[in-house]
């Protein structure tokens, strides 16, 4: 299998009073293409910072390299990083970042709007299919406020994959779900990720996430916990 993402001795620090604190501590790891990897670890272990590093959302790294499909992300300019992320990476944040003034379909189509793409008949068919797979039915015209937290989470997943990005990064995807709904959600997520031949990296405190992943990694103190 090819490597989709590779980190080589990545150091990222922030100021903590008069001192520096390493959020990523010379971490080296890689993630295979078309696989789902679960990342676990206690709060403050660097899990979310790792996702931000992969997505090019850090302003800089102190040293090392983050490579995504052969592109050294932190050798790109800020504008180039934004363009690279827009076309290759989708990220599902813990807060979901859905737009309350848009209906379901409009929220799902945000990645297309960002790339100035038209919503075609094929897009409409994909939206219908994804909504059915996620157990939501045909709710394209529904207002966001009429949906439960779990339903909104599934909409966020559909939005993330609608334009078939190469990589999907998820931060605590089951955080607002009970165990029964977590299982249902993860089954649906795995189905859609594998059908679309994407690489997915899921950060989670939830041990059940590991059982739906092809590989797992634990972090501690900004590095791999061997």
Q: How do the strands line up in the largest sheet?
A: 6-7-8-3-9-10
CATH architecture term: 3-Layer(aba) Sandwich
Query: What is the global morphology?
Result: globular
Low-confidence stretches: none
Counting DSSP H or I runs of 4 or more residues, the number of helices is: 7
Q: Return the string of H and E elements.
A: EEEHEEHEHHHHEHEEE
CATH class: Alpha Beta
Write up what this structure looks like:
By secondary structure, the protein is of the alpha/beta class. The chain has one domain (3-224): P-loop containing nucleotide triphosphate hydrolases (Rossmann fold, 3-Layer(aba) Sandwich), CATH 3.40.50. Helices cover 32% and strands 28% of the residues. It contains seven helices and ten strands. The strands form two sheets. Strands 6-7-8-3-9-10 form a six-stranded mixed β-sheet, sandwiched between helices. Strands 2-1-4-5 form a four-stranded antiparallel β-sheet.
SSE arrangement:
Elements: E1 3-16, E2 19-32, E3 36-40, H1 47-55, E4 63-68, E5 71-72, H2 78-88, E6 89-92, H3 104-108, H4 110-114, H5 121-133, H6 149-161, E7 167-171, H7 179-195, E8 199-203, E9 215-220, E10 223-224
Parallel strand pairs: 3-8, 3-9, 6-7, 7-8
Antiparallel strand pairs: 1-2, 1-4, 4-5, 9-10
Helix pairs in contact: 6-7
